[in-house]
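Most newcomers find our protein records easier to grasp once they have seen one. A record pairs a protein's sequence with a compact description of its fold. An example says more than a description, so a record of this kind follows:
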Amino acid sequence: MVGSYENISYRYYASSKDCAAMSQKDDIKNALEDILALFDADDVPDWDCIAIDEGGPWKGWMLYGRSGEVDLTRYCGPQIVFGKGDSRSEL
């Protein structure tokens, strides 16, 4: 889901096992806008990525920043861990 609220642009990605995120798309959009309304419009960073999954059966991440400045193609999601050692076999 991609959108904007005042001078903040965002991209939200959600996943769930039972497609709950798709069936609750309007609820998610309203929740995102409620969260963005709490931000100080003059203090929005160039970009940030936050987990937003409270209150629903899905896991979600929102990439947001100042409209016209944020790169909404950036990765925003769970941390990717490739292994703890130097060996490729540990990936």
Observations:
- The chain has a mean pLDDT of 81.
